[in-house]
């Protein structure tokens, strides 16, 4: 199906371009969300008549997104989750959780604007990209920890998932001989 784009869409095209897309993508995403019109003569005339309004609205949205990006870029947010001793989370941190953390701090970012290819499943510092507008991106840091105290330690650069941090043991000092005796009789018979 051919559509006329009403705004810039990443990996597809600029505003005003006529592009060919799959029918399902057009029917289920582009047309219902008002991001495109079917490419026919009536809609082409309608687009040309509304072009100035659409471009002005796009500039306004981009400037609003840029203001939010300027504030958000480089900020760090703490997410407290339950995790095992190895640092593996019992659940995960998904885009919905990131949106809730940002909303709690006063930033209105939709979860569809959060670029998180896979959920976060371990404690630590994680970079998360935000696509606030087709032309504006920001990056925030999530400090995923078991407690606020642990998050503060991670922010200072401490590693909390190594054997040294968890057990107070130097991993380099561990040797197999410390755990078993190679000279011991394995079958239990005394000779």
From TrEMBL:
Database matches in PROSITE patterns: RIBOSOMAL_L9
Provenance organism: Gellertiella hungarica
Record keywords, A-Z: Coiled coil, Ribonucleoprotein, Ribosomal protein, RNA-binding, rRNA-binding
One GO term describing the cellular component: ribonucleoprotein complex
MF (Gene Ontology): rRNA binding; structural constituent of ribosome
Family per similarity comment: Belongs to the bacterial ribosomal protein bL9 family.
Disordered: annotated segments: 163-191
Biased segments, Acidic residues type: 179-191
Domain called Ribosomal protein L9: residue spans: 13-40
Coiled-coil annotated residue ranges, if any: 37-64
Biological function: Binds to the 23S rRNA.
UniProt protein name: Large ribosomal subunit protein bL9
Pfam families: Ribosomal_L9_C, Ribosomal_L9_N
GO biological process: translation
Superkingdom of the source species: Bacteria
């Amino acid at each position: 199906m051919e559509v006329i784009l009403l705004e810039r869409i990443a990996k597809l095209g600029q505003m005003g371009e006529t592009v060919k897309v799959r029918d399902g993508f057009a029917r289920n995403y582009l047309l219902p969300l008002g991001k495109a019109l079917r490419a026919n003569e009536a809609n082409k005339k309608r687009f040309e008549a509304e072009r100035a309004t659409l471009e002005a609205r796009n500039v306004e949205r981009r400037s609003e997104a840029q203001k939010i990006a300027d504030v958000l870029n480089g900020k760090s947010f703490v997410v407290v989750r339950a995790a095992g001793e190895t640092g593996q989370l019992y659940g995960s941190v998904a885009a919905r959780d990131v949106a809730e953390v940002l909303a709690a701090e006063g930033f209105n970012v939709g979860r569809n604007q959060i670029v998180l290819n896979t959920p976060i499943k371990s404690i630590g510092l994680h970079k998360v990209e935000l696509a606030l507008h087709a032309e504006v991106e920001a990056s925030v840091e999530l400090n995923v920890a078991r407690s606020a105290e642990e998050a503060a330690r991670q922010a200072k650069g401490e590693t909390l998932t190594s054997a040294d941090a968890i057990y107070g043991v130097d991993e380099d000092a561990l040797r197999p001989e410390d755990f078993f005796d190679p000279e011991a009789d394995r079958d239990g018979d005394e000779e």
